[in-house]
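Our consortium's second objective concerns turning raw sequence data into structural hypotheses that experimental partners can test. To show how far this objective has progressed, the report includes one record in full. It was chosen at random from the queue rather than selected for favorable results. The single chain below, 376 residues long, was entered without modification.
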Amino acid sequence: MKKFAGIKRVLDGLNGTNNDCSSNQDINDKLTAEDFILAKVGRYGLPYHATCIALDHVQKLLAIGTATGAIRICGKPGVECHINHETNAAVTMLLFLINEGGLVSVCNDASLHIWSIRQNKPALIQSLNFKKERITAIHNPFGWKWLYVGTERGNVYIVNVETFRVSGYVIQWNHVIDVTYKHNPGPVVNITSNPQDENKLLLTFESGICVLWDVRSKKYTQTYQMDQATQTITCVCWNGDGKQFMAGHWNGATSVWNYKNSKKPEELQMPHGSGKSSSENEKNVCCPILKIEWYTGKEGDIPLVIFSGGMSAGNKNKGLTLIRGRSKNLVLSDFIVDFQCLLSTPRMAELPEPLALFVLLRNEIVVFDLLGPAAP
């Protein structure tokens, strides 16, 4: 009996302890404002409805724009931030001010923004609104303080990235085209400067006209245009030596031009044409080439051409093709939103080596190693 009496005393002690705790620690079941403070938990995966990407080749940063006005910036493990435009307008273009700690964004409400990413939390520095002219192309040569802004009306404005003010120097569409061409050439779809001379600017318009503009003398020097309507130019990129440029065409063809000769291209190919000869391919019409990049590398390197689009009819906006020398490889047949190469140096005049290829699809980002043994 003494044994059970001891157990009873232990149980009574435990019950007493619980009663003391409950009486001393009252539970507060009332909610306060502090219970509803929002806090970042985490973000995983690709942002919803991604629309464009940009790379900083020096800082190794990737920016992703979305249709909801958000921008995700990613770097090394642990480096990530998220910013939003107040208007929630879709982000259509992104451009890093490489190694300067700046990011330029364009939204579909004709607004242009510059962000500072030098601090832990990126900050919006300034915004410009072009109101009556939707922005269709931007370009900033590495190391330059000028940002070229092309619009849907065919004009090119020049913005100082340090003050973010529009210069009085405007490239008007009617000053760019030949006097024999009386109609507006349409929106500016591509702006790119000669790697060896930034004063030589290639302007491509939606109508297929491509113009070489001399920034210093403020006049056009060459106009490049194909005879057939199906061969209108859709996009261009320079060779690193500054002597040639490559163009993508509406019918899926690619061409190489000597910038001093605007009469005809030096080379014309149909990468995904079904014809057995070049003459047969000229009669075929594939989907338009939407974006093209050309890297010749240093002496002894095999040239690399990358383009999106250009596949057989019925595959608009689909396909990413890599061409190394004579080897052609369709690496993706998906819908391509955007792509860009990570380069060994942002100085195009130094003939940079492409290190990796970032491809934005509808629901994912695919990265290809361009140096490894399994490189496409």
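The partners drew two points from this record. The longest helix spans residues 2-24. Helices lie at 2-24, 173-176, 278-283. Both points have been shared with the crystallography group to help prioritize constructs.
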